[in-house]
TrEMBL record, chains A, B:
Gene3D superfamilies: 3.40.50.2300, lambda repressor-like DNA-binding domains. The lineage of its organism: Bacteria, Pseudomonadati, Bacteroidota, Cytophagia, Cytophagales. GO terms for molecular function: DNA binding. InterPro entries: HTH_LacI, Lambda_DNA-bd_dom_sf, Peripla_BP/Lac1_sug-bd_dom, Peripla_BP_I. SMART domains: HTH_LACI. PROSITE patterns: HTH_LACI_2 (PS50932). Coiled coil: none annotated. Residues 6-60 form the HTH lacI-type domain. It comes from Arcicella lustrica. This is LacI family DNA-binding transcriptional regulator.
Amino acid sequence: MQKSQVTIKDIAQELGIAISTVSRALQNHPRIGLKTKEQVFEVAKRLNYVPNPAAILLRKNKTYTVGVVFPHLQEEFFSQAITGIEDVISAQGYNVVISQSRDKLERENRAIKSFISSRVDGVIASISAETTQYYSFKELENYGIPLVFFDRVPKDVAVNKVRGNIVEAAFEATSFLAKKGITKIAILNGPSNLEISNERLEGYWKALKSLNLSIFQQYIKSTDLTNEDTFKKMEELMALPEQPQAVLCFNDYVALFAMQSCRQKGVIPNTDIHFVSFANLPITAYLDNPPIASVEQFAYKMGEQAAILLLKIIDAKQDKTLIPEEIIIDTELIIH
Amino acid sequence: MQKSQVTIKDIAQELGIAISTVSRALQNHPRIGLKTKEQVFEVAKRLNYVPNPAAILLRKNKTYTVGVVFPHLQEEFFSQAITGIEDVISAQGYNVVISQSRDKLERENRAIKSFISSRVDGVIASISAETTQYYSFKELENYGIPLVFFDRVPKDVAVNKVRGNIVEAAFEATSFLAKKGITKIAILNGPSNLEISNERLEGYWKALKSLNLSIFQQYIKSTDLTNEDTFKKMEELMALPEQPQAVLCFNDYVALFAMQSCRQKGVIPNTDIHFVSFANLPITAYLDNPPIASVEQFAYKMGEQAAILLLKIIDAKQDKTLIPEEIIIDTELIIH
DNA sequence: ACCATGAATACAAACATTTGCGCAAATTTT
DNA sequence: AAAATTTGCGCAAATGTTTGTATTCATGGT
């Protein structure tokens, strides 16, 4: 009972017409008569015809597939984004293939290589914590595969990107703390090769500056996003002679881990040291003692926008005049 | 600089040999001379040749792609499993395309239809909370597409499945509570069309029985896994004249939400009412007050096993004598 | 009666690859 | 030295679909 062998040839034979006529009929081509079309559709349904994607792909040179490479699926920020991407993409008849870099450059490169050899129509990428050069992404460009960066984007202007308004968000978050009368504010940032880390720092810096607060170099830490390093950097902050009263964390996961680090040292999170972070993930809703505020980045919406942009580029692929686009999604500081 | 057009024809032309020779050389066919092979590989590398998957697919009728349809990516249990699947699958040169059913039957059906029309080589599925009939899955079978069920599996014996030893786990979890001297143990289960719900109930039931504890019908509740319903069912439990002292929850998410429900009513989780759950997700590591114990199901390992099984079936596809296999992964009760 | 027009359909090439078969030349066996 | 086998490679068909061009047939205008 292998139905999969039915081709347009079978339909053509059944009706005694040409293969090309069947093909055009199925595509609703205007040059095919109405009755012929009806007959074709009837037979197609009866024989349980399913078009062979390989043949279509071969002819059209299009896979109707987009690749997504993100650092982690486990992080809700990314899985929410994927949901947004999937919704948009699949509504247009495309498929999504997902790879995780696990913040390793080597895995990221492998994923992209695989995208190239499977000839995806486009790629959405959020670079790994290790990525400092963009060789693989240049390869994509060489093969003419459209690319949209997501959240973790390169500094480079000449690329398509969808990102949050992080500088503004960090400014707001820092100001929020300062307005509570807190003056000793530290930042537990991400790795500096990620532009979103620099943006956080910039917003933090601007806020302190505008409020005439002094900036201490010791209050500025970066974690490589591993739990161990986050733990260590938080300990360093606590060990300072002037322990900070608040910490602005790279994201909720960093915040949660930093808070654990606190507890181990007998420091009570959000009482002794206040935490504010980025992402505002649903899991924080389950906590009795979440960060006192978190920047909502609307991951789902960001994903949607990235997908829409990518599809737009794919559709306009022949148009070489297309210039790279940057979409910035506004954030919102949520007080818990 | 569109390199993507390089075909074996170009390589053949460059070397002045036949296309078929190039094809065989690249496949390391024994009938091709060593020097020819070397030349072919050299030119292939130089021209940056990438095989066209569409053409291969068309000839071989194989996509080197497997479809995965899971209820949610957001749930760490599933994203961990996907990581396991991805690791195994991609090591064998396959790709993974992922769809989320969001616990909706209609989305599940759509995903499977899409898998059929994109001609995936196999499917791994964890059924939605709504699934009671398996029409779509039967379709897969009709098309001869191998299928492995994962975690949320049908009762049906005649299917391939990978699942945890849930009856045993529920028995252990319930016994654990009883041994603490707790006698009034409720269960906040998942929907009854999921076999894993029934298994939990069975283990719960057996444990109470073996300990000579009585079973109260009011202590047995099912949630449809939406937060609202979980909330409601937990409230019902609390409103009972004999409030339970402990609740065995379907999974960590249900537990966390039930615990929130407690707090709203002024009931202190794990003091007034103890919680034990399934999944033992990493997020519980971030909580100050997690369920007192959780059943580790080794999602990553389960994913690996499912992928291994699926690949095995794909490889043995011609062998019609293959009988459905059931892989059971042992669980472990983790005390927090 | 003749040509132009247009509709409806047929023909065939093209897409990139695999593979059965065949044909030489080279090597081994008798 | 003839026969048999092996080695190395080319030819061409086949996979299922799309699409440019050709063909047929009828209609209508002159």
